[in-house]
Amino acid sequence: MDSAVHPDVRETAEAIDTMEIRGAATIATAVAEALATQAAESDATDPERFRAEQRAAARVLYETRPTAVSLPNALRYVLQDMEGHSVEVLRDSVVRSATEFQRRIESAQEDLGQVGANRLRDGDTVMTHCHSTAVVACIRAAVEQGKEIHAMVKETRPRNQGHITATQLREMDVPVTLIVDSAARRYLNDVDHVLVGADSIAADGSVINKIGTCGLAVNARDCGTPIAVAAGTLKFHPDTLTGHTVDIEMRDEREVIDDETRAEIGDIEVLNPAFDVTPPRYVDAILTERGQFAPEGVATLMRELFGEGTVDPWDE
Ligand code: RUB
């Protein structure tokens, strides 16, 4: 354990690990802030030491959850310009990048919110899965455009993030109907859109999002209900351009079943994957701050964004 890692960084890492801080964009914002604190409060006296501390902090944050690429993308963005001959210059660069990163996330959410809102018509009902700040931004923008939007919110077992979505939509007076996940198919003919977020978008346009997204998308396609994915370019996974796959996080079985019930049932295996992969053929549109794209169009934009390759600042 590197003692030079700031306690706030460790606290943020712990909060991400336990999902007190969750959701891809929120995680990205939190890690940018943690790196800024690490930089601002560093007492390193030489640039090499300062850089080593930042790398160690980045590593602690990187190792929390594996699926949302917004986390490593945030680390890369904030630490991209760690050049400079004095600690002061380096410190300023990290703090400035972190602030700039957070500003960009906010403005990207607003811009993609408009793109999503333009897809929604007055009186439409949207089915949601999990809790995504990008999805909420789309619905908020539609409401601000004066449209009446209804939401059918899937509760999203095992952690019921649908409750967060329902709460936030009610705060903006959107009528909400909560359903259990397995009721989605029954109501897909009654809704006008399925709108979900993303933890990562792969170069082939596959969408990695909360477990259950793929089943929802396949059913939506079967019903002819359009499915859009609200995901800023922060969710584009650069490693997938070179053939890497995205790690799917497996979480504790106690999220699914408590020890007592498990013991009553007997000897069983419990699997608790947190995310799944929706193939591009089940996705109608990916909504970003740069406009909406067919999943097949993502690779071109990714090459433009990551063309020169990426550096992993958590590596030694
Ligand atoms: C959250 C989840 C969200 C995406 C997008 O999973 O799958 O749909 O992260 O969120 P978890 P956002 O609760 O396990 O973190 O649009 O806010 O980035």
The structural domain count equals 2
What are the low-pLDDT stretches, counting only 5+ consecutive residues below 50?
none
* Oligomer class: single chain
Mean pLDDT: 96
- Please name the fourth-level CATH homologous superfamily of the largest domain: Translation initiation factor eif-2b, domain 2
Strand fraction equals: 5-15%
Strand order of the largest sheet: 3-2-1-4-7-9-10
Question: What coarse outline follows from CA principal-axis ratios?
Answer: globular
Residue share in helix? 40-55%
Main sheet attributes: strand count, strand direction, barrel closure: 7 strands, mixed
CATH topology of the largest domain: Rossmann fold
Q: Given the helix and strand composition, which structural class is it?
A: alpha/beta
What Rg do the Cα atoms give?
Answer: 20 Å
CATH architecture of the largest domain: 3-Layer(aba) Sandwich
Number of helices: 11
H/E series: HHHHHEHEHEHEEEHEHEEEH
Ligand roster: ribulose-1,5-diphosphate
CATH top level of the largest domain? Alpha Beta
* Alpha carbon gap, first and last residue: 15 Å
Number of strands: 10
